[in-house]
Amino acid sequence: MLDASHALIGASLAKLVPNPYLALPLNLGLHFVGDLIPHWDFRTRHVQRSKLTTIALSLSDAGVGYALGWWLFAGSVPLQMLQPEG
């Protein structure tokens, strides 16, 4: 599955379940459920494409997913709970 899809699924679950102790195991399970849905990817083992191109495509995909997730759900999850207490 594309990284963008995984990022959006994870961000959606984080919005619905803001407790990270519950969201993490749920997200791990949801990851495998999402992979059951037929989808396409960048064919990272494609021999006629350079490694640099494959890496650039993968990073672009991940960046788009994270940017969309941040844009859609920014402020929904209290990120200060992830900071160490000091």
Automatic annotation (TrEMBL):
Key words, A-Z: Membrane, Transmembrane, Transmembrane helix
Domain of life: Bacteria
TM stretches of this protein: 52-73
Stated name of the protein: Membrane-bound metal-dependent hydrolase
Provenance organism: Candidatus Beckwithbacteria bacterium GW2011_GWC2_47_9
Taxonomic lineage: Bacteria, Candidatus Beckwithiibacteriota
